[in-house]
Amino acid sequence: MNKKLNRFLIFLIAFTICLFSIGYSVLESSLRISGELNYRADAEVRVTNFVAKNVPSNMTIQYSEFSKDEVLLGYTPTDVDASVKFEVTVKNNSPYTFVISNIENSNINTSYELENYKLGDLIGKKESVTFNITFKHNISSLEAQAVLLNFTFERPSAEMLIYDNTKSKSKCIDVKCALDELYQKLR
Question: Of the candidates 6, 70, 110, 153, which lies 20 to 30 Å from 24 by C-alpha distance?
Fold first, then answer.
């Protein structure tokens, strides 16, 4: 009889612990998790790297960040002719070719120049392109500046592509015209 009582008490204690655990979790309505998570969505085309190549002595970088289609730079010039070069990598994860069709600059006091890439150059499917952006300070003020560049990625249209008409007798200069001409010949 003693063994039955011991088993019953053990079962009762375990059952009570389970009930208290379930009851407490039902009453606790807010979930508190501390910590930080950086998650980058696997977008079709995105900026994957934005690092300073050389920071001259006449400029101080406060921050440089990037997201899917933006780069953000905060700097303080110590000279009116300050400039800094950053390396940018754009990755095309899609099964299609894309181009950077536009880069919008949010700061009129800073200009940028692209090196090793020009707007409209193709970024092949599943490929990366790495290029440099040189930021130049355009005003005589030495105040801190924040620059946000917003990249526009899009699939190239026929009007964006250049057609090489030297190998055919076509007078077309773009792909759309050449395809229209070919369609007319096939009719």
Answer: 6
Q: How far is CA 111 from CA 74, 134, 147, in A?
A: 14, 8, 9
Asked if residues 92 and 128 have their Cβ atoms less than 8 Å apart, the reply is yes
Strands (E), the chain: 45-54, 59-66, 70-77, 83-92, 98-105, 110-115, 122-123, 128-137, 145-154
Distance CA 174, CA 164 (A): 8
> In this structure, are 55 and 83 located in the same domain?
yes
Within-domain flag for 40 = no
Q: What per-residue confidence (pLDDT) applies to 130? A: 93
Instruction: Tell me which residue of 159, 91, 168 sits closest to 125, measured CA to CA.
Output: 91
Distance CA 152, CA 68 (A): 10
Token pair of 62, please?
Answer: 């406060």
| Residue 103, in any domain of the structure | yes
- Mean of pLDDT over the chain: 79
Range of the domain at 7: 1-28
At 118, is the pLDDT very low, low, confident or very high (cuts 50, 70, 90)? confident
Q: What confidence tier does 45 reach under pLDDT thresholds 50, 70, 90?
A: confident
| Residues 142 and 159 sit within 8 Å (Cβ to Cβ) | no
